[in-house]
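WARN retry 2 of 3 for item q-0093 after timeout on previous attempt; input resubmitted unchanged.
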Amino acid sequence: MMLKLLVIEDDTALAVAIEQLLREEGYDVSRTGDGETGLHLAASGFYDAVILDAMIPGIDGFALLRELRRGKQTVPVIMLTARATVEDRVKGLDAGADDYLVKPFATTELVARVRALLRRHDVFGDDGDTIGVDAVTLRRNAREVSIGPDTYVLPPKEAALLELFLRHPRQVLTREQLMDRLWGYEADVLENTLETYVSKLRKRLEGDGCPVIQTVRGLGYRLQTRG
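OK item q-0093 returned
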């Protein structure tokens, strides 16, 4: 599953350059130059990290970040700014930034900081990293799922889909969000491919005490827990 990054930057040339750079590094990247849109996307829970310009239209980066943290959103954020004063760095960190990068910056430094940020927040995970809901436990890197007394090794896409549901229990995940997260920009992937994977997971989760994958008509799916 590709790690998904959000770039919020109103300088189109710079935003495109950052997007291309990060795509070359293997990330799935979205971008916007508007603060209100950026806040909505950053709060969606579907990004592994955010690269945020301090001065953007609509709502500036500092206010956006404060609103994001006020909403208990913990997505890691690197703040970009053209001002290198101590006061500005403190302002950004106090607002909730995890890192701070001053323009102009070397592309290699941005990539290194993104990697370090993801490592610090354990986005990559390890063989012992587990996620559990009700009677279901997934070991991410091993793609090993325990459902009650039974344990299976899942195919990569099926494991990635289960991980998304386990990370967002009781939350409606749209078909577009799921397909974008699992397949990115593979244009030849059909919606019934997603339905096939959902159907497979439903059959696996038929045991006692397991959460249920519900279809939300016209939107997508939701993992309904027993609790």
